[in-house]
Design goal:
Helix content of chain B: over 70%
Number of strands of chain B: 0
CATH architecture of chain A: Up-down Bundle
Order of helices and strands of chain B: H
Oligomer: heterodimer
Shape of chain B: rod-shaped
Distance between the termini of chain A: 57 Å
Radius of gyration of chain A: 23 Å
Largest sheet of chain A: none
Largest sheet of chain B: none
Number of helices of chain A: 8
Number of domains of chain A: 1
Shape of chain A: elongated
Largest interface: A-B, 37 and 30 residues
Number of strands of chain A: 0
């Protein structure tokens, strides 16, 4: 399966088919979830209206964690099998993951102030999510700092794989340590802990953000494939000019 | 403020979250589509010049 889609032409034909599906689904689900979350869903008995922040905070953080899992998996494939497309996928995922983590932290801070009385506390869940943000930024910094393509891909992949250790810490931090952050209310033993009228828009938003992530990653990968093709064509053209110049030089009767 | 967007004392926090999310998502989309458009144009030019 992996080797089948490692072929750029096959990947391009699949991606061109998937891009509009992801784009339209993302737009439809996110807009619907936000409208439901803002205007339709009933208020929470404890948090009141402020509960509505869940429809932007939870999908951002959930998909940011999935984005890191995707980055680490693509890095693993790139490291072990040296697929350039896997490296390209990891590269594409990093800025989107960083943006979603930033959104998760910022909306969390804006939710924390009215609920906890503070924008930020050095809580295990918040701190481990901040570490994930630094991992995304660090990954991009490493890619920007190393010139050699092979070395860059391998060092970035090792960093991403080591950083994946942070994912279970984020997930279980609320269980392992005494935390101000509420425990898991969606993925937990015994089923989700919120009413279905509030739950479905959250799930819609999570799937919508996931499709947005997939859409942007595919667009970025297609862009990189086109950039590589441009570079190859330019090198080939430069080589042709170089070889014809050398032929002209050797054929010069005055030489 | 419109009644529709009045969520009580924490309205500012709620609308800031939604506004920030919309802004960041829109920025991601614009940057990605702009890069895609530029790359496609560049590739088309290179193909036209090399053929």
């Amino acid at each position: 399966m992996l080797s089948f889609f490692a072929n750029p032409i096959r990947f391009q034909s699949l991606a061109k088919w998937l891009v509009p599906i992801f784009g339209i689904t993302a737009f439809g689900l996110i807009v619907s979830a936000w409208i439901l979350g803002l205007f339709v869903v009933p208020i929470d008995y404890q948090q009141g209206e402020t509960f509505r922040i869940i429809y932007v905070h939870v999908p951002a953080v959930t998909v940011a964690s999935l984005a890191y899992a995707f980055l680490a998996s693509a890095s693993f494939v790139s490291f072990v099998w040296r697929h350039s497309l896997a490296d390209s996928a990891a590269k594409a995922a990093a800025p989107i993951g960083a943006a979603l983590t930033f959104l998760g932290l910022a909306t969390g801070a804006l939710w924390g102030k009215p609920m906890w009385g503070a924008y930020w506390v050095w809580d295990a869940r918040l701190t481990s999510t901040l570490v994930m943000f630094f991992l995304f930024v660090g990954y991009m910094a490493i890619r920007g700092a190393i010139r050699d393509e092979t070395t860059r891909a391998r060092i970035a992949a090792i960093t991403a794989m080591i950083g994946a250790l942070n994912l279970p810490i984020i997930k279980f931090s609320v269980d392992w340590w005494s935390s101000l952050h509420q425990p898991a209310s969606l993925l937990r033993a015994g089923g989700p802990g919120i009413d279905s009228s509030m739950l479905y828009p959250v799930l819609m938003a999570i799937v919508g953000y996931g499709c947005l992530f997939g859409w942007l990653v595919l667009l970025k990968m297609l862009t990189e494939l086109d950039q590589r093709r441009s570079l190859t064509l330019m090198r080939r053209a430069a080589g042709r000019i170089g070889s014809s110049a050398s032929v002209q030089t050797t054929e010069d009767p005055n030489a | 403020m419109l009644d529709l967007f009045d969520f009580g004392k924490n309205t500012v926090f709620i609308l800031s979250c939604y506004g920030l999310s919309a802004g960041v998502i829109l920025a991601l989309i614009v940057v990605t589509l702009h890069a895609r458009k530029l790359t496609k144009q560049q590739l088309a030019e290179i193909i036209a010049n090399t053929e």
